Amino acid sequence: GDSVTQMEGPVTLSEEAFLTINCTYTATGYPSLFWYVQYPGEGLQLLLKATKADDKGSNKGFEATYRKETTSFHLEKGSVQVSDSAVYFCALLYGGATNKLIFGTGTLLAVQP
Amino acid sequence: KAGVTQTPRYLIKTRGQQVTLSCSPISGHRSVSWYQQTPGQGLQFLFEYFSETQRNKGNFPGRFSGRQFSNSRSEMNVSTLELGDSALYLCASSLGDLAGGQETQYFGPGTRLLVL
């Protein structure tokens, strides 16, 4: 079945460091891909999305490119801030008859000043 | 535009009781999906409602049910609560146009349920 695999956390970085959180997926078709972020005690916020191969989603300095050849959607940011500390979830939505999001396990990011 | 709202934000119940959670979607959104988040199982899809009809269902027992009203507001109910039902329950709304291939779900803040 469809699935999403994320790199294990926690990821601990110093402020202004470069961030990469790996995400790979398994799907029978061409899903839409998403990154959501969850701050402590809150729900999920959409960070960015891509709906087809080679699309690049971007928001607030974060970027991710939909790579069909490697079935990946890695999240990157050039310079992280303490305020980026949160849990990041990669997810896929397989088009067609379902609106079901399939999530990865989440990656905790801790940014130290 | 107001976001997705969920009530109540926190609940404490005892085993065997039942609980009803409410979700109001973003104005104009016709699809409401529910997810359960636990430390052990992560985020799992419960069900989706569109135009007052359940369109998809996840792999949860029949104790979990839901409904949607004509104004797209949705409720989920859990009967005969078990300790393992303690979780954050998240509601997400979207336009509901599956054929368009551009669906994006927007989440509410969640209801944290503790079963004692």
Briefly characterize the structure.
Chain A is built from no helices and 12 strands.
Write out key terms for the chains shown.
heterodimer; A: 113 residues; six-stranded mixed sheet; four-stranded antiparallel sheet; 0% helix; globular; B: 116 residues; seven-stranded mixed sheet; 11 strands
Q: What does the model show?
A:
The complex is a heterodimer of chains A (113) and B (116). Chain A has 113 residues and is mostly beta strands. Helix content of chain A is 0%, strand content 50%. Chain A starts with a strand and ends with a strand. The mean pLDDT of chain A is 93. Chain B is mainly β and 116 residues long. Helices cover 0% and strands 52% of the residues of chain B. The mean pLDDT of chain B is 94. Chain B contains no helices and 11 strands. At the A-B interface, strand 5, strand 6 and strand 11 of A face strand 4, strand 5, strand 9 and strand 10 of B.
SSE layout and pairings?
The complex is a heterodimer of chains A (113) and B (116).
Chain A: E1 3-6, E2 11-14, E3 19-21, E4 23-26, E5 32-38, E6 44-50, E7 56-59, E8 62-65, E9 75-77, E10 86-93, E11 101-103, E12 107-112
Parallel strand pairs in A: 2-12
Antiparallel strand pairs in A: 1-4, 3-9, 5-6, 5-10, 7-8, 8-9, 10-11, 10-12
Chain B: E1 5-7, E2 10-13, E3 19-24, E4 31-38, E5 42-50, E6 53-57, E7 64-68, E8 74-78, E9 87-94, E10 106-107, E11 111-115
